[in-house]
Design a protein that fits this description.
Number of domains: 3
CATH class of the largest domain: Alpha Beta
Distance between the termini: 28 Å
Radius of gyration: 23 Å
Number of strands: 21
CATH architecture of the largest domain: 3-Layer(aba) Sandwich
CATH superfamily of the largest domain: Mur-like, catalytic domain
Structural class: alpha/beta
Largest sheet: 7 strands, mixed
């Protein structure tokens, strides 16, 4: 649906975060007197009223019938489309769309390079934009990484590097616009509370491939879910396979040619090199020379809250991996510091994801100390308790992040690592992973403002 098609429609906005505010500005730019209804949190009402918009009605109460009187509801991505209020209205003909769908509808000819996956998508998207810019290509970096596409409605770019969450992949399909490239890095259980089940999460994630029908699909050959896909409408390029970009051990290869000394060593961790393989495959797939751009990886600045080494205090190194929202991500983070005594802080909002795989990895591979916290902390503690003595790691339960930090420092000597890699969202205790990471930095004695800027957002 294009914004021009909203004319004459009964339109509501749902959510007043950055995405919601961007949608409001775009609609108002074209339709300054269109009646709009905003559904938001009570604490957001003063900000909405400050607009002094006589054509904006603000509501804070939701019921199963709230949306029945609207033709279109522009919904923020974090709001599940499977809740009762949505399903009831949708059954009566109300159309729910997101800002991502609006942007794609307005930019059918943009060279869009869309990246999704359970983990690694932000870093992958940022590296892709960095290398394209290093090659002289005007590139936008936007999407779920921290800049809504609607904030760049009138921007011009040769390439659009777009991170998509599982909440946004359906929006691309709904727009009817085929992306030039869709990258899917991996599929693990995630956001089960939003999607309702693991099967639905996988289905929603894969809509970027199965329903958006990208012209080119860049897929991880080592992910069984992706390897089993049939995509008759897309040309598929694989990474992680011997005939393309892949790793042998920790070394980077394209086919049988080793290119590890050309800049790949600047990215720490095997998981980041896997992400780099995806990026290089995308660059080759759009007709550019990825090998020629590879040395520019050395100038890439890691993103905040993603295995971010904050620094050292009193001999202890603090690492902020607050973006970690799955047990798989926590394990990947631990692998980075296997040669140093490490205390890992895990736990947060409980979405029902099991930690059995994490527990299994503790057999012979446990850190020095594990501290559980958050809503699912007791459940994780109970799972790990039988292993602690046998695998020689200490296990503590913390009341909150501050208590976890105190316990971690008490368990470590000098040259240790305190690693915040929760493997769970922060909802409840914090607004989002950024707020959690900032609090961790402050508790460790670092300036939160100095560690949170995401480099490269926008067009350059």
């Amino acid at each position: 649906m294009r914004i021009s098609q909203l004319d004459g429609q009964r339109v509501a906005l749902w959510g007043w975060g950055r995405e919601g505010r961007a949608a409001y500005r775009v609609i108002r730019a074209q339709w300054p007197r269109m009646p709009l209804t905003l559904f938001c949190l009570a604490g957001e009402v003063p900000m909405a009223h400050a607009l002094r918009d006589n054509f904006l009605q603000v509501e804070t109460e939701l019921s199963g019938e709230s949306f029945l009187g609207f033709d279109v509801v522009v919904k923020s991505p974090g709001i599940s489309p499977y809740c009762d209020a949505v399903t009831a209205a949708a059954a009566q003909g109300t159309r729910f769309i997101g800002g991502t769908a609006l942007w794609f509808s307005e930019h059918p000819d943009a060279r869009t390079l869309c990246v999704t996956g359970t983990k690694g998508k932000s870093t992958t998207t940022a590296i892709l934009a960095h290398l394209l810019r290093a090659g002289g290509h005007r590139t936008a970096l936007a999407g779920n990484i921290g800049l809504p596409l609607l904030e760049l409605m009138d921007a011009a770019a040769e390439f659009w590097a777009i991170e998509l969450s599982s909440f946004q992949t359906s929006d691309v399909a709904m727009s009817g616009v085929r992306p030039e490239v869709a990258v899917v890095l991996n599929i693990f259980p995630e956001h089960l509370d939003w999607h309702g089940s693991q099967a639905r999460y996988v289905e929603d994630k894969l809509r970027l491939l199965t329903q958006a029908r990208p012209r080119l699909a860049v897929l991880n050959a080592n992910d069984p879910t992706l390897a089993a896909l049939s995509l008759p409408d897309s040309q598929v390029h694989w990474f992680g396979r011997g005939d393309g970009w892949h790793l042998r051990g920790d070394a980077l290869f394209r086919g049988d040619t080793c290119l590890d000394d050309a800049g790949a060593h600047a990215l720490p961790g095997r998981h980041n090199r896997d992400n780099l393989c995806a990026v290089l495959t995308v660059i080759d797939s759009v007709g550019l020379d990825a090998a020629a751009l590879l040395p520019h990886v050395a100038s890439f600045r890691p993103l905040p809250h993603r295995l971010q080494v904050l620094g050292t205090r009193d001999g202890i190194t603090y690492v902020n991996d607050s973006i970690s929202t799955t047990p798989h991500a926590s394990l990947a983070a631990l692998a980075m510091f296997g040669d140093r005594p490490t205390a890992i802080l895990i736990g947060g909002h409980d979405r029902g994801i099991d930690w059995d795989g994490f527990a299994a990895a503790m057999h012979g591979g446990a850190p020095a100390s594990i501290i559980t916290m958050g809503q699912n902390g007791p459940r994780i503690f109970e799972l790990l308790a039988p292993l602690a003595t046998r695998e020689h790691f200490t296990l503590d339960s913390a009341a909150d992040l501050g208590d976890a930090m105190r316990l971690a420092k008490a368990r470590l000597g000098r040259d240790g690592v305190v690693l915040l890699s929760p493997g769970a969202p922060s909802f409840g205790a914090y607004r989002d992973y950024t707020e959690r990471g900032r609090h961790f930095a402050a508790l460790a004695g670092f300036d939160p403002d100095a560690i949170t800027a995401i480099p490269g957002l926008g067009v350059a």
